[in-house]
Specification:
By secondary structure, the chain is α/β, with parallel strands linked by helices. The protein has nine helices and 16 strands. An eight-stranded mixed β-sheet has the order 5-10-2-1-13-15-16-14, sandwiched between helices. Strands 3-4 form a two-stranded antiparallel sheet. Bound molecules: adenosine-5'-diphosphate and N-acetyl-L-glutamyl 5-phosphate (X2W). One of its GO terms (biological process) is L-arginine biosynthetic process via ornithine.
Length: about 290
């Protein structure tokens, strides 16, 4: 079991630091990994540390549970299909306020407290994330044909222009991106954060893509961690429903990021202290590696 002490991790890290210097690492920070203030501060410190040692981290965050909490308070019902929140205009307003406002700015503030210089943006800034309306195919029960679902203002990414991210990282800033995109006619889209992280990682040709969630990685039916998973196994596990919900887009888009040129992709448990450093800087690594 790897140590959880930062100093110990760093001693083991030296050869990796040399290898990773100057490279870009995209970190998807899932809403379920934002458990408490201590863990959030640890995350901010780990991201800042990466920048200090010459790596360029780009944070793409979610905030699903944080949106749910506000929707609950407002008495608005919410529903997910295949890991996507059905998004009407009212929901879109809440999503944009929570993700682009509260969640984004609190990550920026915590990185600042840790000594880093973060800039919080959404996919709308600098024309970064272009999107169009997504349609969702839901498997029919038994022999029933698949159902086509209109998810409202849920977007699929059509294009990522990474210029703004490159400008920020080149100037020493840490970009923190909320997963909101813009359509051809200026309309706002709610995009699953895993999707945005994977597409940004591909657009940047990232060396690593790390998806932080609230489970140790992809688990089998006995809840045992799968250390590496490839396309065939992902397909099998989705069709026999041992992979469901938010894990579906995570894996599907992680695979497309790898085909898009990302070096390596790992799904790890962000509720474990310093999991990011343990993944990057230890031989054993943690979590699940996704392979083509
Ligand atoms: N086979 C599986 N292995 C691990 N987690 C799974 C699996 N199938 C579904 N999940 C669910 O996926 C969740 C992670 O996805 P999601 O809820 O979107 O998290 P995040 O907000 O971190 O992106 C896990 O908490 C778990 O409930
Ligand atoms: C379309 C869609 O589902 N968008 C997500 C965006 C936030 C997100 O992805 O957050 P997590 O990474 O914490 O799950 C949502 O509305 O919850």
């Amino acid at each position: 079991m790897p140590s959880q002490n930062v100093a110990d991790i760093l001693i083991e890290a030296l050869p990796y630091i040399r290898q990773f210097a100057g490279s870009t690492i995209v970190v998807k920070y899932g809403g379920h990994a934002m458990v408490d203030e201590q863990l959030k501060m640890d995350f901010a410190r780990d991201i800042t540390l990466l920048k200090y040692i010459g790596i360029n981290p780009v944070v793409v965050h979610g905030g699903g549970p944080q949106i749910n909490e506000v929707m609950d308070r407002m008495g608005i019902k919410t529903q997910f299909v295949r890991g996507m929140r059905l998004t009407d205009a009212e929901t879109m307003d809440v999503v944009e306020m929570v993700l682009g406002g509260k969640v984004n700015k609190s990550i920026v503030a915590q990185i600042a407290q840790a000594g880093g210089r973060a800039v919080g943006i959404t996919g709308k800034d600098g024309g970064m994330v272009s999107a169009r309306k997504m349609t969702i195919m839901k498997e029919g029960a038994g022999d029933a044909p698949p159902e086509i679902i209109d998810p409202g203002l849920v977007g699929e990414v059509t294009h990522v222009n990474p210029d703004i991210l490159k400008t920020l990282t080149d100037r020493g800033f840490i970009p923190v991106v909320a997963p909101v995109g813009v359509g051809e006619n200026g309309e706002t889209y709610n995009i699953n954060a895993d999707v945005v992280a994977c597409r940004i990682a591909a657009a940047l040709g990232a060396f690593r893509l790390i998806l932080l969630t609230d489970v140790d990685g992809v688990l089998d039916r006995d809840k045992k961690l799968i250390h590496s998973i490839d396309t065939g196994e992902v397909r099998r596990m989705i069709s026999d429903e041992s992979i469901v919900g938010g894990m579906i887009p995570k894996l599907e888009y992680a695979l497309s990021a790898l085909s898009g040129g990302v070096g390596k992709c790992h799904i790890i448990n962000g509720t474990r202290r310093h999991s990011l450093l343990l993944e990057l800087f230890t031989d054993q690594g943690i979590g699940t590696e996704v392979l083509l």
